[in-house]
Amino acid sequence: MENDIKSILTENGFSFKKQLGQNFITDKNLLSSIVALSGAESGDTVLEIGCGAGTLTRALAEKVKRVIAFDVDKTLQPVLRQSLSGLENAEVIFKDFLKVDLTELEKSVGEYRVVANLPYYVTTPLIMKIIEEGEKCKGLCVMVQQEVAERLCAEKGTSEYGAITAMIAPKAECRIVKRVPRTLFYPRPNVDSAVVRFDFSERIKIKDRSKYKKVVQSAFSSRRKTLENNLIKTFSLTREQAQSVLSDCGIDLKARGETLDFTQFEEIAQKLKKYLP
103-158, pLDDT tens digit by residue? Predict the structure, then answer.
């Protein structure tokens, strides 16, 4: 597999673009493992974001009903034409997935899973797009930098726990299912990676997502400050109002954002209503 892909890339005169974070997976065992760990089944439609040379695309297409792959690099066209030859259930769309109208896409594809080897520079916005807009997404499985994986799956009270963790938590359980050394990529990146799986379920009902998001962002805006002080600054509250909200939620007035879980952030968002327009 590795030599085949390298040959195809060379034959087509492909040049890696560092700004796109192009590090392709060539190890066949790793590809099979990602497909298995993703939870994808034979009848599924899978969206792949950033298909690169098509190695994961092919591994997915050999398992599932349909693969719709996205990539921004049109110079991969001849490479993918060769690496995906003979597959009738895989299509590649050369478009920035962040600019895709997901609501419209879901109308045509129905329920789906997302499986991807994500370049680091778009990891957070892509995951949040699925979390916030993916009404028909059954599950998400992504390869990301190990450091990012730790943040996505962090427990409250740890240094890795942050806004992205709290934004994901109400909608999905997130866990690291495989750690991947840098040696299994071509070209080799400077960091190790990990496969993270998100299993979607509405763990709690967020009544006002924009307000919840603002509370979470406030909580982590200055990690050294107390939650009370961050809420005062973000929502223009008096100290008495901020203290009232926290007390009503049973939260210590000296607590910091990283000590709270997603249920507490939602409770704060609801209690804030009496002080906000």
Answer: 999 999 999 999 999 887 789 999 999 999 999 999 999 999 999 999 999 999 99
Q: Is the pLDDT of residue 272 over 90?
A: yes
Provide the b/e sequence for 81-91 (b: ≥16 CB within 10 Å): ebbbeeeeebe
Please name which of 79, 25, 15 lies closest in space to residue 48, comparing C-alpha atoms. 25
Which tokens in the block code for residue 132? 């916030």
Contact status, residue 178 vs residue 33, Cβ threshold 8 Å:
yes
Q: Which tokens is 80 given?
A: 């993918």
Instruction: Look at strands 24-25 and 185-186 and give their pairing.
Output: antiparallel
Residues in the chain, overall count: 277
Name, in order, each residue with C-beta under 8 angstroms of 2's C-beta and a sequence gap of 6 or more: 26, 27, 186
Beta bridge partners of 194: 144, 179
